[in-house]
Specification:
Elements lengths: L3 E3 L5 E3 L1 E7 L2 H13 L3 E6 L6 H15 L3 E7 L8 H10 L2 E5 L3 E2 L4 E2 L6 E5 L3 E5 L19 E7 L1 H11 L1
Parallel strand pairs: 4-5, 5-6
Antiparallel strand pairs: 1-2, 3-11, 4-9, 7-8, 9-10, 10-11
């Protein structure tokens, strides 16, 4: 655990603790804890969100958070997550989740022109945050007969999470 973190203004932010996580089950355990323990707000930005077992579990957790009064904001890449079902999106919106796509400039069924959003960031209550290479999909989670892809994440508790929340709000 570190007590200081470098911030975007070129200085250090005090009063932080940092935990390095290997992807797969450890990451998803931390993610579930952040969602379950959030009280006020939850910013959730990912490049890939699939409607598989992992994705549906996380989707339902976001719905439960919104129903208990947490302000949940979901931003997904409009290209990489385009296979997300309308049923999942409608479930979020009906529960009060603020959902939107990060859209490219122009896209069609077989082509894409513009930018993509590669974020894999979660910020809970501007105090706890996860930043990772992990997306929301079975292939990033440890499944019964298939280990997860190797990715890493950091869980930070402290002042630097306020900066991460600010970055999420600007998207």
């Amino acid at each position: 655990m570190f007590k200081k973190s470098f911030n975007e203004t070129g200085g250090y932010s005090a009063n932080n603790s940092v935990k390095l996580l290997r992807g797969g089950a450890p990451f998803f355990k931390e993610l579930e804890d952040l969602i379950d323990q959030s009280v006020k707000s939850l910013h959730f930005q990912f490049y890939i969100f699939d409607d598989d077992e992992t994705g549906l579990r996380v989707a339902n957790m976001l719905i439960r958070a919104a129903r208990r009064g947490v302000q949940v904001y979901v931003l997904l890449d409009g290209y990489a997550s385009r296979s997300l079902s309308g049923e999942t999106i409608n479930g979020w919106e009906n529960a009060g989740v603020h959902f939107r796509w990060f859209q490219p400039l122009f896209n069609g069924n077989n082509f894409f022109i513009g930018r993509r959003m590669h974020h894999k960031v979660v910020v809970a209550d501007a105090l706890h945050s996860l930043v990772s290479g992990v997306n929301i999909s079975n292939r990033y989670n440890d499944m019964p007969d298939e280990p997860a892809w190797l990715d890493w994440a950091t869980r930070v508790t402290g002042e630097v999470s306020v900066l991460r929340r600010t970055a999420c709000r600007e998207r």
